[in-house]
Every structure is written in C-alpha cells, then in structure tokens.
Amino acid sequence: MAPRAGHAVNAPGRRVAQARLSINTVTLGNPPLLDALDAIAATGARKVGLWRETYDGMTARQAARAVADHGLQVSSLCRCVLSHDTHTMADSRRAVDDAHQLGAAVLVVLAGGLPPGSHDLAGARARVAEAFAELANVAGEAGVRLALEPLHPMFAASRSVVNTLRQALDIVEPFPGERAGVVLDTFNVWWDPELADQICRAGLGNKIAAVQIADWSRNHEHGPFLTRALPGDGIIDNLGIIAAADSAGYRGPIEVEIFNDDLWQQPPRRIAEKAMSSFFAALC
Amino acid sequence: MAPRAGHAVNAPGRRVAQARLSINTVTLGNPPLLDALDAIAATGARKVGLWRETYDGMTARQAARAVADHGLQVSSLCRCVLSHDTHTMADSRRAVDDAHQLGAAVLVVLAGGLPPGSHDLAGARARVAEAFAELANVAGEAGVRLALEPLHPMFAASRSVVNTLRQALDIVEPFPGERAGVVLDTFNVWWDPELADQICRAGLGNKIAAVQIADWSRNHEHGPFLTRALPGDGIIDNLGIIAAADSAGYRGPIEVEIFNDDLWQQPPRRIAEKAMSSFFAALC
Question: Is the omega angle on the peptide bond into residue B3 within 30 degrees of 0, that is, cis?
C-alpha cells in the first residue's frame, strides 16, 4: 500500500493510538459478556467490538449497562445478515434495536452467501442492494449507522456475495455517510488490486464506517480458521492500509478482530493482552 | 453468468464436447506418466493437461512419444513460476523447451506469491509484467504460447499475486494472442464481479489461451484442498462460464483440473472416469 506518509496513527504516538484501540469479542472466542469485558478493559482499551452471541440471555439494555460499567464504548455490533426471508428480517430488526440500545457506533451487515442449491451468483448479488435499502430504512428510524462488510472472495459461496470494497461502496452509495458506510477489514481486502483507489473513494463520501485489522498467515493451506492471525503474524501491510484510511479522512476506532482456533485455546485475558500488544506493534 | 444462450459446447452435442475434453494429470494426483495416460486415454479423451512432475526421470521427448502412443495431445503443460531469480529463470527455460518438445498448446505460467518476509504486494505485482516479458521472449523463440493463470485471491500470498482476469489481461496485453493469453480456470475466477466483462475483453484479443473447469464446494471451512471439487459437486456455474468463453470466440480444449485429497485416494482409472462423467454432466 502506498502512501505510507502522513499516517495519523503513528504521528501523535501511543496515546492517540490507544484511544482508537478496540478489541472485538470474537478475538477472545466470544466468551460470556462479563468475561470478555473484564479481559478487554484490563488491557486499557476503551472500546469493544461486540458480538450479539456474547450477551445471550441478557437484554441489550443490560448488556449496555455492563459495557458502560467497564468504562467501554461499543465500536461495532456484529452482525446482521441481509435477506428477504421474513425470519431473517425480524432478526435484523432486533439487531438494529440492539445496536441502538448499546449505542454502537455501527451495526455490521453481511450480504449472506448463495441461497441453498443456487448457482446464480449474479442474481444473488443483484438482490443485495434492495435488501440493504430495506434494512437502511429500519436503521435510519432508529438512528443506527450501518456498515456493510465485504468478505474475502473465499467466502463468496458461504457467507457473503459482496467480496470487494467496490461492490460494497456501490451498494451504500445512495445513502449519506452518517447512515451507511463500509467495514474496511484488512483480512478481507488486502489482496484487492483496487484497494488504494477504493479507500480514497470511500473516504470522499465519509463511507469508512469501521476498520478492523488482522493478519493473513502466509500459507493458506491449513484452512481459513488458522489463516487469520494477529497483526504482525502474517503478510498484510496493516500500517499501510490504516495510513491510507487515515489519509482518506478516517479517524475512528481500529478493532482487532481475529478468528483463530489456536488463539481461542487460551484464556480471554491472555488473548486480549496479545491483541493489544499486536495492535501497538503493528501500528506504532 | 449471463448469457447462457448460444453455447457451442451444448449445441452440437456430445461428440463435439468429447473432442474438447481434456483431463489434467493433477486430477489423478499426478501418478507416473504411463499410469496417467492409460487412465485418461481409457475415458475416450483425446487431450491431456500434463504436469512436469509426471515425467520425472524421462526426457520431454520420451514423454512426447508416450503421449502420442496413447493417441493424446497435450492441451497444457503445467507450469512455470515467474521470477527474476537465476535458478527459477533456468527452470522456466527448461519448461519452455519441454512445452516445445511436447507440442503443448500452451505453457501455464504462474506469477508466484509474495517473496519471503515481504509485505509489499504492490511491489511484487509491479515486477510481474517485466518477468513475464522476459519469459515471453524465450517462449517466442521456441514457438511456445504462454498462458498466464490468475489464481483465486486466497492464494495471493503463497502462490500468485495475480488474482483477477483483469490483472492477467493487463500483463499479456502487449503480446499477440498467438504468443500469450490467459488461463480461464473456473475455480479461480467464478467469484469475480467483473468476470463476464473480462471474458469478453479476453475474447476480443484472442487471449483465452486455455480453459479449466472445477467446482467450489459450498463450505470452504475445511480448507482449500477439499474445496476444489469435480464439476457438478459445488456452486460454480461452469456451463454459464464456458458459454461466455465460447461466445467470446474460444473453441479450444476444456480441461478438468481438480486438487482434492479425497479424490486422490482413489485409483487413477476411477478418478479419470469420474472426471469424464462430471465434464459431460456439467456441460452437456
């Protein structure tokens, strides 16, 4: 990634970087909410990326209280999956309501994969914009900002038919930036030949709604749930990509979000410490 | 993929399709050459995609004789990897010489992954065009047609920094189609939002040099060497993609190329039969 010059993360030093640090609960393997919050707050982080699974059995209001009691803010709530299916739409409404209750900066939205039995990728893609617009209406009423996340092309069949920043930006384009943007997750986008251009484009429209960092371990052959590693343990130029986002005007939180079977074997506090250390090593 | 109309594979029926069928030796797990050729010729195929590993211990001339004795032609020779490294360039020259001796329709070229320790993807990509031009000089003297293969973005770090048809076409653009084109491998390109446009672009310049088909099993989570399945066992619209290639003027061989740990447990003849059946089921 060029340019590396002028990256705001580094320039004012560790204090500014610390204010932007967020740790996503899935990095800890999504333990029960209080365990996750204890571990993340103990690192000095002031922000948390939250998965809905972590507060199962609580109301969102109770979860919001627990987050506040730990001195934390919710940088993102993961997640809702687009669909015209009635059940899924009802779930998306609950997700929007939760994001509102939690004061989440954004609600992360995934496009979903191919419908079962389908070979019609173009058709599935064509339906995403409409489903997103429907959700944006609901979110707009609740004052919740949506963040559509393109996933790496290896997840196109199973998880998201939106696989590039360009696609995601095409979909959120009709909405003002304060209502809808994209998630820039370095694991998902690092390979994209258009990455630099599309980050600029996103910045111009205030469309970078959330940033997540991870790393890509060099050899993918062992499967995706070991491929996603802590920043610094792989080949992604996280500093360069964050510098590009900053140059494009992004000043928000930077979440460490990892899915890694090996990491998940460790206690939450140990993982949170590693996530915090890897954040500073990668960006400062 | 649209359009499905007018696909030459289907229209004139099984006889025409059979004339285009090629089976790649790696589908059989690259057994010794004679075993591979016996198994492939027994299916009625008249073409074979050959990996250099299969004739280890033979000269290319001896391998060419064995291929001819089985009534087969070489649709592609796999493969050489681009690099400025002296050792690799010497190997590439041998690959070009082998392709000439074998009368291979194309020599498959991979860009290679990131250099060890490097985080500079843009830099690695910038060097590919120069290395390709160097190889094209060597190939041109030998009358060998090169086929640059973009690999799926999940292989960007380890195997190829060229990950889209657009990138590959940008690189082969300066050369006439009869000297250099691209490999359209459905497993590598099916996810690409630009696929239809770039197939058209490739066809206009006679730049579709080889076509390979496989399938993508829906759940990628078990790792890439089980993700690549026989045509029909996954979600790729192989018929639609082949129809697009045909509409763009491609009339050459269609290779079944699979890398699959489960498949490789079976005897070569059984695998070759399955490859042949899957080819007709997917395209006729």
Answer: yes
